[in-house]
Structures are given as structure tokens and as C-alpha cells.
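Our consortium's second objective concerns turning raw sequence data into structural hypotheses that experimental partners can test. To show how far this objective has progressed, the report includes one record in full. It was chosen at random from the queue rather than selected for favorable results. The single chain below, 149 residues long, was entered without modification.
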Amino acid sequence: MAANKTNSFKMIWKSEINLDGLNKYPEYLGSFLGIKFTDWNENSLTATMPVNEKTRQPFGILHGGASVVLAETVGTFASSLVIDTNEFVCVGLDINANHLRPVSTGEVRGVCSPIHLGQKTHVWDIRIFNDQDKIVCISRFTVAIIDKR
């Protein structure tokens, strides 16, 4: 059986992750939508987002753009946790999302794992699940690592 490349990474984080610290950032789009970091392990970071009036589209289901905000938020934070933020910043370069199942209530959970961690780019796999652990969205997010100005 071939090894899954996303599971072949050793501990990728520069240090232990403080979830309370990640959740105390000043107001930004993710906090406005209720995104909260909830878990991490040696090679993944997890955040949740409520499915409510802020994240549903007019027809009552989770807006695809809200799923993309969740994916980009957890991916950007993940990149920031594996670089030296005194020298570099991470910015979104490309994102793709396949919306597979509608969600109208509850909460969704985005699990972000690395595909590639290079010096100038990171590529993340973000899988978003509903309350029943069914996948609702798969996203691939590319982050550019640029010099801090």
C-alpha cells in the first residue's frame, strides 16, 4: 500500500499551536463568519464555522463562498504556523473548491493538511465536513510565501 503523501510529513509546525491565541485575532472576515480553530495534530489544523444567516445563501444552504472563506482562512493560518513570520508573510495565490453536498444547519469543520511545503509556496488540502462527518467540500489552496515588507 502506497503511503499517502499528506501523512508523510513529520511535525510541520514551528512550535506547539495555541488554539486560544489563534482565536483571539482582531476582527477579520473569518471572525465575522464565526470561524474558530478547534484542533490540530502533527500535520493538520482544524477550524469550524456555523451554518447560519451569515454563511447561508438566499436559498437556505451554505454559501460556496463561505466554504472558500473557511478553506482560505485555515490554510493561511496553517502556512503562518510553518514559516518565520518575522521575515515572511503568506498570501493566497490560488484556491479551488468542489462543493459536493448542501448543508443548511449546524456547523461545518475544515481540516487542512499539507500537500507541498516549499520555501516559496505551500499547497494545502482542505476537506470540509458537516455534523454527520460527511464531506461537503474539497478545496486545494496555494499560498505564496513572500518577504515581509
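The partners drew two points from this record. The domain at 5-9+35-147 is CATH 3.10.129.10 (Thiol Ester Dehydrase; Chain A). The first strand starts at residue 36 and ends at 41. Both points have been shared with the crystallography group to help prioritize constructs.
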